Backbone:
């Protein structure tokens, strides 16, 4: 569409904004449900198990289909699949908004994941194909800043819409989808397509393997990693004892993905159109860039899963106030996008990734330093602002590094692989972080209550109650003068959990930074 030295026309920049808004929609839907679960439970009278599936079904399907949608993007054109994904996302958002029961809402969320899986990799392919050279770095800066901003805006939007009705959290997607579709049709040209076929056996293996892997990473803490700690209920079926469904899922996922890889390698060597061309991993910037992507996913957004809990239950923020407290992250992400424009000519994409990872780690270290039972809003804002600037640099430009040397005819596959690495890294990061956070909360509360005039059994019961409720019982404990010391101990233990979690994430991002030393700058980026 554009040579290395040409300035992209205005219509491509407008098309980029539309594509970025499409990505923002699917990222918001990953985080917004965390804030609106309570009113959904009250309105639809659903069980806690159904509430969990409303939250997680979208992410599991999303991760499972990324490789397939990446291949479909190459065969049928990224713009066409992006538009189909928007239609699926819009229709299923309407179904979710109108759902009269928990079962139908879960079904809508599963189908929403299909739309999301079409949108993310095709958005990457569209940006990668439309821009080159300096403009590509600037385009990815805009694309990447929307991910950081959307992750922060999701809880804010959910908290605000929950004051009206939880249904608006899904209903608001519909006019946005219509607007984005119109802009894409007007401003972005039809994408090139290629002749070929889909390896449906490979598609089934990848969907099964990635879906089970995502399920295991997301649900490990809840159901138990080895032995059942909480029954898995699906309709009339209940898995109550024996090996955990998470352990079984991992036991199936690993060999399934191994079979998938062997099949793709065989098809690739025979030139028989694999779903995933393993020869892409011979590209140094693609192979090593995806390792960095996985590590960035591990350390980047796990903290967002626990911050609202601390803010609402330990700092007494409302859902809306907790959302507002995350806004500095979004502002920092957009600041990085603007700064990246002027830096693109002098600082490589890999250099900007390194700057971003350093700032992310610094922001999280500050958050850990400031974490306390009575942390001020400004200290949280400063830490999240620095962190957000880092997200804006690192999230955007690591994608530029990964895709810069991928041939145009494989852009969809490359985007699907990079998206899968990002999502699985995020799922593993959230699994690790929530385990560390709740373990620190439980252990810290037991230690703080050890000197209280309570029996050991009572201490363990209270610690379990606070941990199992994710801290939601703390406000009720604080209202009882006799239980106020317990509430204060729980608030301190929650702050300690945030401190440890922040330092852990900072350490993972430092590891990602160290890994970039092995990445050679892309030939085209």
Residues:
């Amino acid at each position: 569409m554009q040579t290395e030295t040409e300035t992209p026309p205005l219509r491509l920049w407008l098309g980029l904004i539309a594509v970025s808004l499409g990505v923002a929609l699917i990222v918001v839907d990953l985080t917004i449900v965390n804030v609106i679960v309570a009113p959904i439970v009250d309105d639809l009278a659903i069980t806690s198990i159904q509430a969990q599936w409303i939250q997680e079904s979208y992410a599991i399907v999303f991760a499972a289909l990324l490789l397939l949608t990446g291949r479909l993007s190459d065969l049928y054109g990224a713009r066409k699949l992006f538009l189909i994904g928007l239609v699926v996302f819009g229709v299923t958002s309407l179904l979710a908004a109108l759902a009269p029961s928990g079962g139908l809402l879960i079904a809508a969320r599963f189908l929403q994941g299909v739309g999301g899986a079409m949108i993310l990799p095709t958005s990457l392919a569209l940006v990668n194909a439309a821009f080159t050279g300096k403009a590509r770095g600037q385009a990815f800066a805009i694309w990447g800043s929307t991910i950081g901003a959307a992750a922060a805006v999701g809880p804010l939007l959910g908290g605000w819409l929950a004051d009206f009705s939880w249904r608006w959290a899904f209903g608001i997607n519909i006019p946005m989808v219509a607007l984005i579709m119109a802009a894409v049709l007007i401003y972005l040209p039809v994408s090139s397509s290629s002749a070929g076929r889909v390896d449906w056996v490979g598609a089934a293996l990848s969907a099964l393997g990635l879906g089970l892997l995502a399920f295991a990473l997301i649900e490990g803490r809840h159901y138990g990693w080895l032995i059942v700690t909480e029954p898995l209920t699906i309709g009339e079926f209940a898995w109550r004892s024996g090996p955990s469904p998470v352990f079984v899922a991992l036991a199936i996922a690993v060999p399934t993905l191994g079979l998938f890889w062997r099949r793709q390698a065989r098809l690739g060597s025979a030139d028989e159109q694999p779903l995933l061309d393993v020869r892409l991993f011979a590209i140094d910037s693609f192979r090593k860039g995806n390792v960095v992507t996985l590590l960035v996913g591990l350390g980047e957004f796990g903290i967002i899963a626990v911050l609202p809990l601390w803010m609402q239950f330990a700092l007494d923020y409302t859902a809306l106030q907790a959302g507002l407290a995350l806004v500095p992250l979004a502002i920092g992400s957009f600041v990085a996008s603007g700064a990246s424009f002027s830096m693109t000519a002098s600082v490589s994409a890999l250099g900007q990734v390194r700057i971003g990872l350093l700032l992310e780690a610094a922001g999280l270290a500050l958050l850990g330093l400031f974490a306390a039972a009575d942390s001020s809003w400004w200290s949280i804002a400063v830490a999240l602002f620095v962190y957000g600037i880092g997200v804006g640099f690192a999230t955007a430009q690591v994608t530029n590094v990964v895709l810069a040397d991928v041939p145009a005819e494989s852009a969809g596959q490359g985007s699907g692989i990079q998206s899968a690495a990002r999502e699985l890294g995020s799922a593993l990061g959230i699994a690790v972080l929530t385990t560390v956070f709740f373990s620190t909360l439980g252990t810290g509360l037991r230690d703080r209550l050890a000197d209280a005039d309570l029996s050991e059994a009572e201490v363990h019961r209270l610690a379990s109650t606070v941990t199992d409720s994710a801290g939601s019982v703390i406000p009720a404990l604080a209202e009882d003068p006799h239980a106020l010391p317990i509430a204060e101990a729980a608030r301190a233990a929650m702050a300690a959990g945030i401190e440890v979690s922040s330092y852990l994430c900072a350490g993972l991002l430092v590891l990602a930074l160290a890994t970039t030393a092995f990445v050679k700058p892309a030939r085209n980026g």
The longest helix spans residues 411-449. The chain has a mean pLDDT of 86.
